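Narrative summary of target 7.
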Amino acid sequence: MSQLENLIKKRGAVTGKLTNFSKFVAKFEAIIKDGGTDSELSVELEQRYDRAVNLIDEFEEIQGEIDIWSVDGEAQNAERESFEGPVPEQHVKLPVIDLPKFSGSYDTWLGFRDIFESLIHANASINDIQKFHYLLSALTGRARQVIESLEITNTNYQVAWELIRERYDNSRILIHNHVKALFNIKRVTGDNPQAIRKFIDDIRKHLRALAALNEPTDNWDTLLIYLAGTRLDTNSNR
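Modeled conformation, tokenized:
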């Protein structure tokens, strides 16, 4: 058996595994639609899904080798499209994940980055195409324009996320913007508890961001007391 024939045989085995998973999902969905529940089937679905997601990487590795040996590029493209059509995520309903929107404001970048990385980027149960869709849905305005020209593929998700990180993970600009925001906090006038609470929350928000950027905010007491005093009226200062 030639090297190409051996690779094609391996690819067929991977495709067969995916087909078996699709059949299992269809069986599970039929039970759910009929109003039934089966805890054992649910556990098995999770286990099978984890294995099925790995099939994508396995297929790509084998197909990459086939592309090297095969002279029929059109046929190999058709095989790849055929495999990518019934991928597992089309059958399994994704969980609803509420993400904050990010429009390109440096003031909100750190919060958005931490939430996105925690819920999406580091989530092993979501493949890169799904992560790309989540990223696009969360970005608006200038931030979305950074990656808008990229085609939605597994490989391009990592490219897209790195482009966003390169654009907004700029410590110097982030520090400058949060310090500027501290000095531009709106003055509090009159005896207004809600306004004072917002005033305190805004200061804390920017201090947390600066601390995350390794600024020594624990030693800024004198500066912060003076700054706060200049933004409060006489009664509030008292």
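The chain has three domains: 3-90, 106-168, 171-237.
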